[in-house]
Amino acid sequence: MAEGRPLLKQKDLMVISYSCSAGTKPTWILSLLLILVAETQVVHGVSPTGFLNIDCGLTNRSTYNDILTNLTYVSDREYVEGGKSYNIMAQYMADATNEQEKTLRCFPEGQRNCYTIPSTSGKKYLIRATFTYGNYDGLNSSENGSLFLFGLHIGVNFWTTVNLTNWGSPDTVWKEVITVASDTNISVCLINLGSGTPFISTLDLRKLDDAMFLFLNPSVSISYFIRLRFGEVDDFITRYPKDPFDRFWEAAHRYKFPWRNMTTNKEVRRLPGNDNFQVPTAILQKASTIDSNYSEFNVSVRVSNNIDYRSLELLPIFHFAEIGDNNPNRSFDIYDDENLLFDNYRPQPFRVESTYNSRRFLRKKGANFTLRKKASSELPPLINAFEVYSLVRMDNLTTSSDDVNYMKEVKKYYSLARNWNGDPCSPREYSWKGLACNYANGNKNPSIIRVDLSSSGLTGVLHTSFMKMPSLENLDLSHNNLTGPIPDYQLNSLRVLLEGNPICSKVKDRYCGNKKNRTAIVLIAVIVPVVFLLLLVLMCLWRLCWKGKSEEQEDYSIYEEETPLHIDIRRFTYAELKLITNNFQSIIGKGGFGTVYHGILENNDEVAVKVLVETSVAESKDFLPEVQTLSKVHHKNLVALVGYCQNKKCLALVYDFMPRGNLQQLLRGGYDSILNWEERLHIALDAAQGLEYLHESCTPSIVHRDVKTPNILLDKNLVAKISDFGLSRAFNAAHTHISTVAAGTLGYLDPEYHATFQLTVKTDVYSFGIVLLEIVTGQPPVFMDPQTVHLPNWVRQKIARGSIHDVVDKKLLDQYDATHLQTVIDLAMNCLENASIDRPSMIEVVSVLKRETIDNFNPSKEECHGCRNSKAVPVDDLWSFNNKLRWHLLSVWIYRWGIRNEPHFWAS
Ligand SMILES: *[C@@H]1O[C@H](CO)[C@@H](O)[C@H](O)[C@H]1NC(C)=O
Ligand SMILES: *[C@@H]1O[C@H](CO)[C@@H](O)[C@H](O)[C@H]1NC(C)=O
Ligand SMILES: *[C@@H]1O[C@H](CO)[C@@H](O)[C@H](O)[C@H]1NC(C)=O
Ligand SMILES: *[C@@H]1O[C@H](CO)[C@@H](O)[C@H](O)[C@H]1NC(C)=O
Ligand SMILES: *[C@@H]1O[C@H](CO)[C@@H](O)[C@H](O)[C@H]1NC(C)=O
Ligand SMILES: *[C@@H]1O[C@H](CO)[C@@H](O)[C@H](O)[C@H]1NC(C)=O
Ligand SMILES: *[C@@H]1O[C@H](CO)[C@@H](O)[C@H](O)[C@H]1NC(C)=O
Ligand SMILES: *[C@@H]1O[C@H](CO)[C@@H](O)[C@H](O)[C@H]1NC(C)=O
């Protein structure tokens, strides 16, 4: 290999260059030579579940174990129709990177040819295809100077182009896409673009963890661009089994001065719930940095000429972990060209953070990132791993699934060998020959309106699938060899042409191009089967009813009854709840009111289903009026009620699912899930705004009665939403209503309410004061120190004894803005006044917090990206400003997405 021919050459894609610069930049650029050899570690065993390894064109055996990975490769016969298998030219055999590259399947016929690989709907998959031309056809296509390229589709959507023009014959290109399966199979299609015959060498399918790549959905996939690991690495490619998902991590050999290797044996962990990338620890234990005389280095991503960059939208992802001992002083800025992307970034000791922004794909030919040491930092920047993906939009609609299934039955029954593969109607230019589709249904899937199978050598009977296709209008089966009866297809408006089939010899009717003689024969042929069918249907129905009663299959519909009230949100049946919660399998919380389950709606929205317990069902007279009230309450900081269920069998509320759990968990979560100061202030502001809305914008006001950290939930973007209105009642006659219903939780109880049982909005203000203290201190409302102590008293004592800084959560590691601390503590203490009249209203609380959050991130101080030029923020822009801020925070903190299935999200 020293002679330098890359075996696996993935760089259809780009050239990566690095440069470092000292204060007075002596710059140099190293272009990355890609010499790649597959991982040599061997694991004894069969392929992990969720792996499918296809060696395309394999003919002399049906399966084998790969020597390098010991993954079991299978022949592609089951997964594709058509095409021809070839071996690469003998002269390249010996050098082939691995066994799979020795054979290939090419597709000289047809514009589109598809592999159909099994999948589970809703699961995420990494699909990798490799291409080694190896001059298999002797045409020297990749080296003779002419254009040699073809396209790839994932399902009905364009994925990428494979451009082998001016490529070495033995070189290998690979492409990867990460996608969400929308059906029980995924098709990978090769598209002939008129510049050479498409072919493929390997197709790998790897099922990913559900918690990975949470920003993907059925209409957004990503195509791999590059994936690098840094530090001292032996293997050119790190893959399975070191990476359990068999991603290819290329070694970025940054070895020459001023690059420095970093290595640790200590475990590098990730936050629980930070499962978006699951970068293997072995990779994170190594990093590259630069000599301390230098201050910055560049990571440039350039698209090579072989790729059409015009439509590219790039998503860069950095993985950082501080692996130097003794928590060294290292912080740096990350620039994308001259734009500050991340300010004052400080890698976390032995914990990975992945910084990216899935909402901002970069639209350009390449990207040039600079990691620049902060003046205050002792050490220069480091980098552990780096990935770039490009966006693949999955916007094209597939043919309606009924039509697809019926056409597949037809194809199978008549053994049609007509390059009918992939989706029948979509994309339009590759639709199946002989079909006409209706694409004009707006947002609905295209449907098949005409099928022309005339003179196609069909034998057998007229297949009933045609009759079932809901949109089919014209069916031409003339001049085939169809026999048997003509079923009744007058039920729909289907026009059929059967002329020239034996089927017409017995029955002369209009379908056979002979309108003269619609005789009794037709009647018999039609009516007899109809009557027979009717009888059959009746019998089946009767049997079903009879059986339904005796078997455990309960008919839940009998429990459903009319609701007397008009409620705008969705009413679920018990059967529906059972379905969306997958038979109440995943419990995400338990509380006084009942159990909360995780559920997924038909549109894939996640929900939390709160099933109220039996006893509360009995006392549920208030339930529907309560639901009616709640269904009218909408605010961005209140957990949205999606629907409810009420009948003899169930009493339940269905809410939006909040993937980040509750505030209590986040605050107490240990060093693994530290909310920074800005995030804390934002959460406080969010919660305050939710309460302000309940108090001020609802008539009559709604008193929450049980404000506490477990009732403040966080969505995936860390936006706080108030939950659990279980104790709330529409609150009558402003602020004076006397209630005898016990409310609240120990530690949060308003002392005045305790004494007088006067429940007012100020009761919530008191509880919010406790929440605010918890946010600052990270302490629970009541704890042992060494005796039982109430949080406000503890804070007062600490402040009296020394400095206010002693109360701040130690986990913040002194990274907070001291000038604002005083204001926030003052605000909390103000909320905790004994006399409710002395407490501020939530309006005042919100306005103080707003001031704090904005001051805190005043652009002139913090250089908040995206708002650097605006010093004074007009009030109207407040929200959009906050959004920007969130964007800024998000881009750094985004890794916290996706805590799932943790208990007590909904503790009441
Ligand atoms: C691969 O795994 C199989 C199945 O466990 C085992 O029998 C075989 O010895 C392994 N082969 C190699 C080369 O490791
Ligand atoms: C099958 O073919 C491959 C290359 O095409 C070769 O390496 C392998 O030894 C062959 N196996 C058998 C069993 O003939
Ligand atoms: C293939 O094309 C290259 C470049 O044009 C040429 O150098 C080489 O000799 C050709 N090989 C064959 C076998 O035609
Ligand atoms: C969708 O289909 C059209 C043709 O019907 C095609 O031109 C277009 O590229 C497709 N879009 C995507 C995102 O694949
Ligand atoms: C980093 O590791 C590589 C590979 O072992 C080695 O060649 C290189 O000299 C190391 N660099 C430094 C600065 O130690
Ligand atoms: C394919 O690659 C060749 C050679 O780099 C380049 O000239 C051509 O523009 C590329 N074509 C496309 C469609 O990317
Ligand atoms: C990247 O940006 C840095 C500074 O912004 C510049 O010095 C360097 O030349 C750029 N590199 C490339 C490859 O454009
Ligand atoms: C039509 O089918 C019958 C049997 O189904 C067969 O005997 C006959 O040869 C076929 N005729 C043609 C023209 O294919």
UniProtKB/TrEMBL annotation:
SMART domains in UniProt: S_TKc
Residues that coordinate or bind ATP: K610
Pfam families: Malectin_like, PK_Tyr_Ser-Thr
One term of GO molecular function: protein serine/threonine kinase activity
CDD domains: STKc_IRAK (cd14066)
Annotated transmembrane regions: 520-542
Reaction(s) catalysed by this chain's protein: L-threonyl-[protein] + ATP = O-phospho-L-threonyl-[protein] + ADP + H(+); L-seryl-[protein] + ATP = O-phospho-L-seryl-[protein] + ADP + H(+)
Species name: Oryza punctata
SUPFAM superfamilies: L domain-like (SSF52058), Protein kinase-like (PK-like) (SSF56112)
Membrane disposition: Single-pass membrane protein
Main location: membrane
E.C. code: 2.7.11.1
Compartment list: Cell membrane
Domain Protein kinase, chain residue ranges per copy: 582-854
Protein name as it appears in the record: non-specific serine/threonine protein kinase
Keywords for the protein's UniProt record, in alphabetical order: ATP-binding, Kinase, Leucine-rich repeat, Membrane, Nucleotide-binding, Phosphoprotein, Receptor, Repeat, Serine/threonine-protein kinase, Signal, Transferase, Transmembrane, Transmembrane helix
Signal peptide: 1-45
GO cellular component, one term: plasma membrane
